[in-house]
Amino acid sequence: MSNWLLIIYCGLITFLTRFSMIALLKREMFNERIREILSFVPSAIFPAIIFPAIFLDNSGDFQLENNPKIMAAIIAMLIGIVSQNIIATIISGLASYWFLIFVV
Amino acid sequence: MNNKFRVFLRGIFDVSPLMIPVVPFGLIFGVLSIDIGFSPIETMGMSLIVFGGASQIVLLQLFSGGASSLVIISSVGAVNSRHLLYGAVVSEHLSDLKLIWKIIISYLLVDQAFARSNEYFKKNNDKNKYFHLFGGGITCWVIWQTTTFLGIVLGAFIPEKLGLSFAVPLTFLALLVNDFRKFINVIVIIISGLVATFGFNYVPYKAYVIVAGIIALLTAAILTKLVKTNE
Q1: I need a surface site. Which of B3, B68, B165, B202 has the fewest CB within 10 A?
Q2: Are residues A95 and A73 in the same domain?
Q3: ipTM
């Protein structure tokens, strides 16, 4: 598939999710139980991006020693829990990562 | 000043504070997309056609890992499934709109605009209230296109050894800050992360995001049920 076709399909599926919620879905279609479970979607999906990007190298092998990403991610997470602030989380993570690779 | 325009401006005003984290997110997207090998036109096209930060970053991440198109598209769908939740909330406020407005609003309906307009809808009930979502959505759109463009330009000057790809997990981590304090969420986060990491090389077609998501969501369903029966 060409890059453009891939981009268009990804755009289409993103649009259709949003459109379905405005035009097709009604409040009655989701009972409280389904809404409760849907509220876990970010917690269920995002870590599947986060963990491999931190613990695996480019070829998919475990990289547990000499890996500044692990410490930087832990610092970012702690700052995030305390501050509840998106920017502070990203910046503290990047800053500690750079500190670990360039200074230490 | 007519009412529609006033509600439109109110939408811009309400959503603006939420735009601060979008700036680094858009820059990172632009820089990474060029780094991975998409052309500047394709990168701009992604922001114009998809217009969704999480969708676009997942697209980049899986594309660079060599995932097939079908897996990339269904993973983007999985990431977007969180939006279905909003539908139950926002549709009742917009049910009288003309189809063309439903299409425009759907294209512009990103998390930040939704969050602010949903608060506004609860308090205000005039027939032009959808202009609030329109104003907020347009604001997000302008910021996202501008920062993507700046990222594309900056990408040429940012050295690879800065390791900016690390910004991807950090950005998603930042989106979860509210969930780290909830016990069931923490377990769901750990399960999803472990399944994805250990399944990375074994789940066929790089469908690890979907497999980890489904297993983690089932865990959430079981745990919430257990908590209820024990109450």
Answers
A1: B202
A2: yes
A3: 0.88
Q: Is-contact B118 B147, C-beta < 8 A?
A: no
Q: Are B86 and B80 in contact (CB under 8 A)?
A: no
* Cα-based torsion angle of the residue sequence B125, B127, B132, B134 in order, rounded to the nearest 10 degrees: 150
Choose from A25, A30, A40, A56 for mutation: most chain B CBs within 10 A. A40
Segments in chain A below pLDDT 50: none
Looking at the fold, whether A35 and A64 belong to one and the same domain comes out as no
**Looking at the whole model, is its pTM more than 0.90?**
no
Q: Which residues of chain B have pLDDT under 50?
A: none
Domain that holds residue A104: 40-104
Q: Which residues of B touch A90 (CB under 8 A)?
A: 21, 24, 167, 170-171, 174
- Are A10 and B50 contacting, i.e. CB atoms less than 8 angstroms apart? yes
Residues A25, A52 within the same domain? no
